[in-house]
Amino acid sequence: xxxxxxxxxxxxxxxxxxxxxxxxxxxxxxxxxxxxxxxxxxxxxxxxxxxxxxxxxxxxxxxxxxxxxxxxxxxxxxxxxxxxxxxxxxxxxxxxxxxxxxxxxxxxxxxxxxxxxxxxxxxxxxxxxxxxxxxxxxxxxxxxxxxxxxxxxxxxxxxxxxxxxxxxxxxxxxxxxxxxxxxxxxxxxxxxxxxxxxxxxxxxxxxxxxxxxxxxxxxxxxxxxxxxxxxxxxxxxxxxxxxxxxxxxxxxxxxxxxxxxxxxxxxxxxxxxxxxxxxxxxxxxxxxxxxxxxxxxxxxxxxxxxxxxxxxxxxxxxxxxxxxxxxxxxxxxxxxxxxxxxxxxxx
Length: 347
Description:
- By secondary structure, this protein is of the alpha/beta class.
- The chain has helices spanning about 1-20, 50-55, 75-80, 95-100, 125-135, 150-175, 190-195, 205-215, 235-265, 265-275, 280, 290-305, 315-330; strands at about 40-45, 65-70, 85-90, 110-115, 120, 140-145, 185-190, 220-230.
């Protein structure tokens, strides 16, 4: 029993402390002090259905670079028609390889902002990021959330996403810690990219890159007043693959990053890396009733972050199937995954 509690401790501590700290987060009001040359980078693989919507949501006075990664559709053509710079590549597929190849060719920008091709952004995105940089930030993450799918299952996914990418980031920011990089809606200055080039090839490449930044002394600042919105996976199969990819990627990082994080005294990123999916902790509430306190606070804050709606009254009826799905795909996961494009749509 004691060994089990020790196993659960890092994640429960991470969830509890960050949830409590999130209550004290205060949004910063910053004034943009100077102008910057900003480049918006959009890695894209066969995104002809969504790339136009993404580009049209971006400001006209900022350069956009679409990296057409092994595309066999009209992604590159559509991007060119909408005025984007297009870098077409053939080779090993995947976002890490695309960024590693293309970014060195576009180093003359003050700020590089990364957006997924299936996303749309808030009108204030670039202004918020440039304001943060002009006030000393070298790396910035804005709020990244997913749209509201029609099903209760998708609603649980949306709440879970808010917890991972918003509540925890607010808690870290309130404690003066690095907020994290979530793979979409993050920006880096020229100095950061020069010191820590994007060369991660892990499945959880964005998490690994954040670990590199923290070990080099950089802090990612959170600015939730700007947002990027992506679509949820359209089927249970694609959602399962996405979750498997996340799990295998995290397990690989645990093996390779625990010791470096300890050596650099980066204990919060270490605890975050050791945190299990929240659904696993829920199963142990009958054994350790006190765990219901941090988990309840975490769920409540995550739920409030996605604006409660009337149909949420039905969520308890979906809870058991959702928890079983999360636990099953956590326990029975593949040990190796190849890269493939995630399907777009809504559950």
